[in-house]
Amino acid sequence: MDTSTVVPFAAHLPASSAREGSGASAAPASSTHLEIERLRARVRELSAELVRAQEAACRHVARELHDGVGAELTATRFALAGVETWLPADAPPQCAAALAVANRSLDAACEASRQAVAELHAPSLEAGIVGALAHWSGDFAARTQLRTSFICAADVRLTRLPADAALAVFRVAQEALNNIAKHARAESADVRIETSRRHLTLIVTDDGIGVTRNAGGRHGHFGLSGMQARCAAFDGTLRVSARRADAERNGDDSGNGTQSRGTIVRARFAWDAMLAHAPRARRHALQS
Q1: What's the maximum distance between 2 C-alpha atoms anywhere in the chain?
Q2: Residue 219 carries which DSSP code?
Q3: What's the rounded Cα separation, in Å, for the pair 234 and 228?
């Protein structure tokens, strides 16, 4: 519950005092505004640096998994095939059973490594953020067997996002869906993009077990901090809340509170910041 109070500073000043002080306060107010803008720009800069470092780390880990772990897994597969070939015909049946277990475990390890490499690599954004998220949502549904939907606003600006902005939106959606698969115990997940004049809002919901009040403050939630950094890099915000609480806050008194379980992730990005690196003529057309 928001308990903050806004107090108008000049509310109780006489009219004459307000007029006398207006000239003196104009310069400090302007200075404060400039300092706030400077700090916001610094937050965007630091967040962008963090995001670039994360992407570089992802590329490095993906290469190591593919070239190092992948090669070792391939060598292990050949070794197991050799053991199976050389196994005597009169070998105890437990040997063949153990080999079968080892092969199944190796298959699982290879698939996990392949999936990790695919997630770590930056997606192809040739089809734009809409195409990339539609493709990823389909793959996510096939892999997890969760009912997954993707709905997107019809907004021409989505088709012309710079690559870094599109990647930020994609990575937040990717991390939110992965969190659902790992922790939510959900049956369905929904991804939605909404747009307004000033903001692009990514909303990811599920019908799982929801989040605890202190989930965001627990140690080890590197995924959430990365999502926050990607939003902050584009003058945005990240909010994670329980769907039940959200339904109550919106006045849902239908009695279906138990059905409104799950989590809502809202990631908001500012169009001005996302389009800042677009060519000037195109940016003017998109913002008009």
Answers
A1: 107
A2: T
A3: 10
Phi, then psi, of 129 in degrees rounded to 5: -65, -35
Q: Which residues contact 144 (CB under 8 A, 6 or more apart)?
A: 181
**Are 143 and 112 within 8 A, CB to CB?**
no
Euclidean distance between CA atoms 198 and 271, whole angstroms: 6
pTM across the whole model: 0.63
Beta strands, E only, 41-88: none
- Reduced to 3 states (helix: H, G, I; strand: E, B; else coil), residue 208 is coil
* Angle of helix 222-232 versus helix 15-64 axis, rounded to 10: 120
Of the candidate ranges 12-21, 49-58, 59-68, 151-160, the one whose mean pLDDT is the lowest:
12-21
**Contact by Cβ (8 Å): 272, 287:** yes
Task: Specify the 3-state DSSP secondary structure of 152.
Answer: strand
Residue 237 phi, psi (nearest 5)? -140, 160
Candidate from 47-51, 150-154, 190-194 with smallest mean pLDDT: 47-51
Q: For the domain made up of 125-287, give the CATH fold.
A: Heat Shock Protein 90 (3.30.565)
Q: Alpha-carbon distance 194 to 155, whole Å?
A: 9
The type of residue at 238 is: L
